[in-house]
Amino acid sequence: MVRRMARPLSEHKVIVVGAGIGGLVSSLLLAARGLDVTLVEAGPATEGPGGKMRAVEVDGARIDAGPTVFTMRWVFDEILAEVGSSLDELVTLTPLSVLARHAWRGHAERLDLHADIERSADAIARFSSPAEAKRFIAFCAEAKAIYRRLEGPHIRSSRPSLVQMGADLGPGGIKALAGLGPFASLWQSLGRHFHDPRLRQLFARYATYCGASPWSAPATLMLVAHVEQDGVWSIDGGMARLAQRLADLAVSRGVALRYGAAVQRIATTHGRASGVVLHSGERLAADSIVFNGDSNSLALGLLGDEVGGITRAPLKNTERSLSAVTWAIHARSTGFPLSRHNVFFDDDYASEFDDVFRQRRLPRQGTVYVCAQDRLHDGDTPPGRERLLALVNAPADGDENAFDASEIEPCEHRSLALLQQCGLTLELKSRTQVLRRTPADFNRLYPGSGGALYGPATHGWMALFKRPGAATALPGLYLAGGSAHPGPGVPMAAMSGRLAAATLRAHLDSISRSGKAHRVRIAGGTSMRSATTAATP
Question: Which of 457, 440, 446, 453 is nearest to 397 (CA)?
Answer without folding.
Answer: 440
